């Protein structure tokens, strides 16, 4: 084989396909029992929440005036409330709301954490000082108090405002981590290269810094879903969250707790669904963390 | 070090001032004490209501800035003003702080002690039955919000009272029974019966967090060279584990303990409210419902101080326990 032919062969040979990161992480995620169980359960919960109501003759606003506080039967699968409302329909409606509120609040808070943390870490100086100070101020303000005071504003279908306020009190710790990681990322060659080529700082942050923190952010967003659902439940329990006539896990649990002693079905179905949902989200978060960073999980194994 | 601490302290003072001012402004702007008088029969004349509200510094016809100035001047003299019923906020909160303190201290001590033991043992027997069981349990507990956990405990407690003990063993409401006359030991027993369920509801979550934390710390330490050296020099494994591994692994947990204590002062809100303990957290919820601006602001102030004092204490404890932090 002559030299030219060898060069030609070199060019023609397909480079081995780099394993895609998505496929690798996905493979590791679904390879773990935690990940599989968490994903399956959460998918089932979503299916139940959004497809389940179609199979029931009752909607969440219907009242059956022939059955008050009745135990589960063929007519009412989960029984009825004191008002005659069907527990199955109401619970699934509450689950829809809680899932949506949890997902949106988590996405929003993680986006906020990434932006604030990356800007503070990248620009340093006064930007950093101001942003860090705001972060600390929000950590010091009692979140429950602020949300509770503002709760009258959440009525009349203004639950989006509730989501925004919820997200506003969830992002601070992550933002501190992001800031620390951005400071070290800033010294890396590819960021330096982009800077010296004249890429504007904002573009560097969104194109290079934040994508490189994606594994942290994805895990954080997942765990924030469960944090948001739990906070929403506690607030709604005391009447400071989702406002009637709308329902969520929190308002249902608050109502159910009053009648739980003599009518257990008003409390245990919704409580069990809530716990299973949060558990599934946490399992997914944990499995994702291991999938993104297998060395962290195996480091301590002897 | 002293200069660093002084700067930090100053920064904290500014944060507390801004945070409590913000809380006051929000509370004064959003809550409406005037509506408390609307439902009364006979309806008090508007002039009387105005005079009453002005006396309490709650009148919404006075500009917010002026009300804030009056409130802030009071706070600087250590006076948080009056509640909507005209009693002193200071006295009310001082009594309630004691209740919260007792509840939180006991819950935190139980929770951290059991959590550390569970976590340490799980780490030593990694991937054993106990490790798997405790990991699973803590995952489950962390998925249950406190409000649900407390309600479940009340349900289980009353069920046990009726069907197993046949007597009221677990008491689910309040700190002690009123008008009880059974001497000193009867009183202690009564308080203990009231204490069990709230303490369990506070500590279960803490046990789960602390055990996860302690397990990870312990696993990090167990693989370290100095443990191997200790065993190689002839220490028994048990001695190496308790004397060297556990002590080192405890440092971050102690830090976390200090921090949790600060946040729990208002974090016990749900437990207090559900079990009817008249503590700070319960008052926080009540005061929002009764439009009690001064109490809300005072509790926000206390919460801010508690969180910052706790994080300062955590940092200093960390420095005191870990020589590497001091030299760095």
From TrEMBL, chain A:
UniProt signal peptide: none
Pfam families: BPD_transp_1 (PF00528), OppC_N (PF12911)
Bilayer topology annotation: Multi-pass membrane protein
Domain of life assignment: Bacteria
GO CC annotation terms, alphabetical: plasma membrane
Coiled coil: none
PROSITE patterns cross-referenced by the UniProt entry: ABC_TM1
PANTHER family: OLIGOPEPTIDE TRANSPORT SYSTEM PERMEASE PROTEIN APPC (PTHR43386), OLIGOPEPTIDE TRANSPORT SYSTEM PERMEASE PROTEIN OPPC (PTHR43386:SF2)
Family: Belongs to the binding-protein-dependent transport system permease family. OppBC subfamily.
Name the UniProt record assigns to this protein: Oligopeptide transport system permease protein OppC
Organism (species): Nonomuraea endophytica
From TrEMBL, chain B:
Keyword Cell membrane part of the UniProt annotation: yes
A cellular component annotation (GO) from this entry: plasma membrane
Domain ABC transmembrane type-1: 97-314
InterPro entries: MetI-like, MetI-like_sf
Transmembrane segments: 12-31, 103-124, 136-160, 192-210, 245-270, 296-317
UniProt keyword list: Cell membrane, Membrane, Transmembrane, Transmembrane helix, Transport
Location(s), subcellular: Cell membrane
Membrane topology classification: Multi-pass membrane protein
CDD domains: TM_PBP2 (cd06261)
GO biological process, alphabetically ordered: transmembrane transport
Entry keyword Membrane: yes
Pfam families documented for this protein: BPD_transp_1 (PF00528)
Domain of life: Bacteria
Similarity comment text for this entry: Belongs to the binding-protein-dependent transport system permease family.
Protein known as: Peptide/nickel transport system permease protein
UniProt source species: Nonomuraea endophytica
């Amino acid at each position: 084989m002559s030299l030219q032919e060898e060069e030609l062969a070199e060019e023609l040979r397909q480079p081995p396909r780099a394993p895609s990161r998505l496929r690798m992480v996905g493979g590791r995620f679904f390879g773990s029992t935690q990940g599989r169980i968490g994903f399956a359960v959460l998918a089932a919960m979503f299916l139940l929440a959004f497809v389940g109501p179609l199979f029931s003759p009752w909607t969440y606003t219907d009242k059956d005036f022939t059955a008050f506080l009745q135990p589960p039967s063929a007519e009412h699968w989960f029984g009825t409330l004191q008002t005659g409302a069907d527990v199955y329909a109401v619970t699934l409606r509450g689950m829809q709301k809680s899932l949506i509120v949890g997902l949106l609040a988590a996405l929003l808070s993680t986006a906020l954490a990434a932006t604030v943390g990356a800007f503070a870490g990248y620009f340093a100086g006064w930007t950093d000082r101001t942003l860090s100070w705001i972060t600390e101020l929000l950590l010091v303000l009692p979140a429950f108090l602020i949300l509770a005071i503002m709760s009258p504003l959440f009525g009349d279908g203004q639950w989006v405002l509730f989501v925004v306020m919820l997200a506003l009190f969830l992002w601070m710790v992550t933002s501190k981590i992001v800031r620390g990681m951005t400071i070290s990322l800033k010294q890396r060659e590819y960021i330096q290269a982009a800077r010296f080529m004249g890429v504007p700082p904002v573009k560097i942050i969104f194109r290079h810094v934040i994508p490189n923190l994606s594994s942290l952010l994805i895990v954080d967003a997942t765990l924030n879903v469960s944090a948001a659902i739990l906070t929403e439940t506690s607030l709604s329990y005391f009447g400071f969250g989702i406002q009637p006539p709308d329902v969520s896990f929190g308002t249902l649990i608050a109502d159910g707790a009053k009648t739980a002693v003599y009518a257990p079905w008003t409390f245990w179905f919704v409580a069990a669904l809530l716990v299973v949902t949060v558990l599934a989200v946490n399992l997914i978060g944990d499995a994702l963390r291991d999938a993104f960073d297998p060395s962290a999980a195996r480091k301590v194994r002897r | 070090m002293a200069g660093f601490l002084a700067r930090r302290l100053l920064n904290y003072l500014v944060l507390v001032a801004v945070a409590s001012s913000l809380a006051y402004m929000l509370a004064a702007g959003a809550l409406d004490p005037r509506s408390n008088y609307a439902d009364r029969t006979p309806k008090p004349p508007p002039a009387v209501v105005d005079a009453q509200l002005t006396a309490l510094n709650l009148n919404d016809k006075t500009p917010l800035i002026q009300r804030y100035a009056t409130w802030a001047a009071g706070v600087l003299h250590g006076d948080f003003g009056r509640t909507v019923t005209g009693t002193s906020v200071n006295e009310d909160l001082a009594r309630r702080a004691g209740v919260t303190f007792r509840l939180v201290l006991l819950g935190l001590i139980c929770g951290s002690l059991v959590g550390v033991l569970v976590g340490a043992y799980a780490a030593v027997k990694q991937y054993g039955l106990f490790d798997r069981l405790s990991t699973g349990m803590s995952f489950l507990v962390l998925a249950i919000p406190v409000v649900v956990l407390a309600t479940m405990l009340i349900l289980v407690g009353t069920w046990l009272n009726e069907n197993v003990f046949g007597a009221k063993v677990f008491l689910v409401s309040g700190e002690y029974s009123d008008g009880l006359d059974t001497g000193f030991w009867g009183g202690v027993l009564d308080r203990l019966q009231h204490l069990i369920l709230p303490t369990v509801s506070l500590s279960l979550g803490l046990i789960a967090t602390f055990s996860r934390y302690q397990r990870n710390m312990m696993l990090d330490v167990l693989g370290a060279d100095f443990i191997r050296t200790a065993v190689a020099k002839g220490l028994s494994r048990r001695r190496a584990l308790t004397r060297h591994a556990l002590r080192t692994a405890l440092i971050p947990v102690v830090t976390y303990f200090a921090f949790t204590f600060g946040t729990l002062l208002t974090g016990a809100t749900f437990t207090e409210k559900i079990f009817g303990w008249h503590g700070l957290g319960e008052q926080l919820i009540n005061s929002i419902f009764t439009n009690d601006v001064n109490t809300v602001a005072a509790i926000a102030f206390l919460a801010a101080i508690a969180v910052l004092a706790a994080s300062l204490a955590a940092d200093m404890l960390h420095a005191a326990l870990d020589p590497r932090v001091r030299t760095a």
